[in-house]
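To fix ideas, we close by showing one paired sequence and structure record:
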Amino acid sequence: MLLIGASLCFSACKTNTQDQPGQEQRLEGQNGHRQNRDKPLGKKAAGIKFSVETRLLIQAEKAFRLGRYTTPQHDNAYDKFHSVLLINPGSSRARSGLQAILLRYAELVRAALQKGRLGAASAYLSQVELFYPANALLVDLKKNLRLAKEKQPVEMFVAKGISSGNEEFNLPMDELNDKSSVITQILSNIALRVKETDESILIFARNDKEGRWIYRQLRQSASGYRVRGDIRISQAPKVRILPPL
């Protein structure tokens, strides 16, 4: 009887020992499944954690690095920083960004004046007037430009939609070569004017490629409006305003 009992005990213990690994495997499988559920879902899920404010700040700072300070419309550093302030008026990062744009324009105005490029200086200054009208820095910049104009009278090109008198807008070649924010702002102002008046245009460009680029900027700035006009080859780039077609 003792032998039979020992045999039964040995058999039962052996059975329990064989069952144990299976149970551990099932538990490990369950734990593994739980661990998988707890893992991050990747970059897409991580991106969701960014707040709207954070994304706008990233976009604003990128636009600033690319020189898109106040143009194009709705995709520039100034608009993005202001959008942040609508969400969080106390954002020091957004306020610093707006201040950086102002200081950058001041640098551009002074640099243009040093090179005698009064037209470019005037265009940069127009952006300061438009976006920072009450800033004390504007007074000094205007004074510097006025003194430079008195020393070196030049033909001014359009800025903020002001015509040269014969309805032609002269395009500064240095800015046109660089496709800078100055030239895009000038073309944007022209486009907004013809959109309001339904006038047509005649583009004078040094080659067909340049003429098409100018037209493309005008068309993009006059969103929802078809700018009508033609392109002529000329060594003096400009845009002439014509009566409505």
Notes: The beta strands are 168-170, 200-205, 229-233, 238-242. The mean pLDDT is 77. Residues 84 and 90 are 9 Å apart (CA to CA).
